[in-house]
Amino acid sequence: MDELVTGDAVVLGLRPAKLPSRALALAIDLVAVWVVYLLVTFVLALSTGSLDEAAIMALAIASFLLILVGGPIAVETLSHGRSLGKLACGLRVVRDDGGPIRFRHALVRGAMGVVEVLMSFGVIACIASLVSARGRRIGDVFAGTLVVRERVPAGRMAMVPPPPPWLAGRFAELDLSAVPDDLWLAIRQYLTRLEQLDAGVSQSMAERLADDLAARTGAPVPAGVAAGAYLAAVVHERQARDARRAFGASAGSAPVAAPAPAAGLAGPTWPSAAPTPPVPNPVPVPVSNPTSTPRPTPSGPSSPEAPPATGFAPPA
User: Fold this and answer.
1) How far apart are CA 265 and CA 151, in angstroms?
2) Mean of per-residue pLDDT scores for the chain
3) Are 87 and 60 in contact (CB under 8 A)?
4) C-alpha angle 131/132/137, rounded to 5°?
5) pTM of the full predicted structure?
6) What single string gives the DSSP state of each residue in 126-172?
7) How many C-alpha atoms does 34 have within 13 Å on its Cβ side?
8) Which of 48, 131, 232, 263 has the highest local Cβ count within 10 Å?
């Protein structure tokens, strides 16, 4: 997707953390972890004095793995990328596309951190961060993550525009598991700079991104829906799923869509407004012929009746 979104056209709305802030956050985390590890080791030494040397060694290895390795992994998973040091420095670990990390991301970071942080005293991590353009260490490269700054001015944050109201929640049943992170990143970059792009370039990029997204999801773009609106609606659905996964079902649920037909999302067309019902033809009313209507006889004084003709003339 690099050929679709160039550096001149879009800017990622996340600010990578610099080495000094990351080093300070790492130092705070190491101090906290080592304090806990030493306390647990001291308690084990007092309570396991009667055990043999093999059992004590097994407990020491288990405490090392659980506290120094498993502790940071558990904290980053449960806090969604905010450890104690990162929280103090205003940093957070996110995926390459800006979404919250999961257990597998924290596991890869923690496993690589044993080598580049604990065993080398942070030298390998510092060198990798200096070489990387976005300040990522080796664990971030393998896990597909990035450490970013959360405390940034609101005006500098590139927000993804919301979808049209009549499209919100329409893709609740869409399978998004096969969409790679680089495609999500390209779509997000396009949407954040939508108003700054030329109309022709914007339309071409939207169609190409929509085709790639439809190929990954297996459901084509619904007929009558613009490519940009389709991308915004699908990204909105993914953000809603990430929010529910990270903060629970009560965190800003997406609008509830009407139930989809059994044929799937590809068949129906969602219009932007409800169609106007046709006006029925008026029923013709029969009109009577005015000439056939008898005219009323005007009322008035009756005239005297003429005597009937009898053939007899009265005398003079």
Assistant:
1) 39
2) 74
3) no
4) 100
5) 0.52
6) HHHHHHSTT---HHHHHHTEEEEES---GGG--PPPPPPTTTTTTTT
7) 7
8) 232
